[in-house]
Amino acid sequence: MEKLLVDTNIILDLLAKREGFYKDAQLLFTLADQKKVVLFISALSVANVNYILTKVHGKDAARKILIQFKVLVEVLSFDDKITELALASDFIDLEDAIQYYTALENGMNIIITRNKKDFKNSALPVLTAGEYISK
């Protein structure tokens, strides 16, 4: 079974029901719910999504949303090695570098993101949720 690292933007597409992006994210997470794929997220994504959801929905509602969401994914930690690799990388955005090295160090097969250009030098395949669903 393929192991997919899901970037923060795809999580927010699902949880915030972002116009134009929700449907593909929903289909991707449905595959996980059906045990057809294993989805992983970085611990960094949990913190970032919580921050954004708290701003929109408040602390208690954000936590409830994340508790329900957590059953669909496995959370990967990032450690000193991943942090050092990310800091030394040529990624413009540190968050993208952390996502990338988390995927690489944990043996992910594919990175799922809406911002493919941010991973242009990736050694791993990088797809949008829609591209993954279509394949």
Short description:
By secondary structure, this protein is α/β, with parallel strands linked by helices. The chain has one domain (3-134): Rossmann fold. The chain has helices spanning 8-15, 22-33, 43-57, 59-70, 80-88, 94-105, 129-134; strands at 3-6, 38-42, 73-76, 110-112, 126-127.
Please characterize this protein's 3D structure:
The protein is of the alpha/beta class and 135 residues long. The protein has one domain: Rossmann fold. The chain is 55% helix and 13% strand. It contains seven helices and five strands; from the N terminus they run βααβααβααββα. It has helices at residues 8-15, 22-33, 43-57, 59-70, 80-88, 94-105, 129-134, and strands at 3-6, 38-42, 73-76, 110-112, 126-127. A five-stranded parallel sheet has the order 3-2-1-4-5. Helix 3 crosses helix 4 (59-70). The longest helix has 15 residues, at 43-57. The protein is globular and about 35 Å long. The mean pLDDT is 96.
Global morphology: globular
Q: Strand sequence of the main sheet, in spatial order?
A: 3-2-1-4-5
Terminal CA distance: 15 Å
Mean pLDDT across every amino acid position: 96
